[in-house]
Amino acid sequence: GAMVTDRYQHVRHHPDTADLTAWADAEGLPVIGIDNLPGAVPLERTALPRRCVLLFGQEGPGLTEEARAHASMVCSIAQFGSTRSINAGAAAAIAMHAWVQRYADIPGPQDR
Question: Which of 69, 20, 73 is nearest to 47 (CA)?
Fold first, then answer.
């Protein structure tokens, strides 16, 4: 709210995964899980839907079995070295930036 984000960001609380996914289904929004699970598709090579819900798991255990079952797809974020996990806030920033790169109306150098 300090940056007046409350005027354009809409926060909805859902008490559990079932409530979230029921809402998303009713709104026609696919749920996209973000986790480095076996079978996850690389975020870097995936076109996220324009309208979707990005779902992140808890740091450590990641997405729950229930969350995975409701996700229309799960995307992983490329990582190198011995670390096999990433902070949930950092993962959210990376995934939201991937969405922004595809859909935001970002002015190019010619517009400056």
Answer: 73
Query: What pTM was estimated for this model as a whole?
Result: 0.83
CATH of domain 5-103: 3.40.1280.10
| Alpha helical stretches, state H, 2-87 | 17-27, 65-70
CA nearest to 53, candidates 81, 25, 32:
32
Provide the residue ranges of all domains of the chain, joining segments of one domain with +.
Answer: 5-103
Q: How confident is the model at residue 6 (pLDDT cuts 50, 70, 90)?
A: confident
pLDDT digits (tens, 9 = 90+) for 18-35: 999 999 999 999 999 999
CB-based burial label for 21 (10 Å; 0-12, 13-18, 19+): buried
Q: What angle do CA 105, 46, 74 make, to 5 degrees?
A: 120
